[in-house]
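Can anyone check this?
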Amino acid sequence: MFIVRVGLPTLLFYRVLKTCLRYGILYVMSDLRRKIMILAEQVAAGQGIEVFDIELLGTGKLLLRVMVDKEGGVTLDDCERFSKSFAPMLDVENLIAGPYTLEVSSPGLDRPLRSLDDFERNKGKLARIVTKEKIANQNFLVGRITDVSDGSVRIAVNEREVVIPFEAISRAKLEIEL
């Protein structure tokens, strides 16, 4: 027998989750995110950049954060050009009901690595990887990405090669090198 401690924050969380599921709010947000992503990718393709990620944050007045990238990195001018093209299209399509703030930025120097393509694009760079299970007796590794093949990522850690199956990676991001 085990005892689960349930407090007021836990009960409130489940009450909110139950309400969201009942009214389909979570589905609406994911569907909205998908529609915004399609529109953003159309604008980005015409400007030679790609949409790295989209975040919808807040309730009431939403914050729409769009992260764009391109080979060699995006500039402030790239972000401004994208924002000036994307904002009117969002308004015309009327995807977001009510007020919102649009924020366009790059993923940053310590960008997350979420796919094998992300690792491939960043070969030779230093990465911080957290794994679901121990690999080389560790769940946390920092090393230089040396290869990506057969569904695995190979990194150099302290002068030794470590192969990490992509499915074993919980989260990963680039390390900022000074």
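Reply from J.R.: I decoded it. Confidence is low (pLDDT under 50) at residues 1-13, 23-27.
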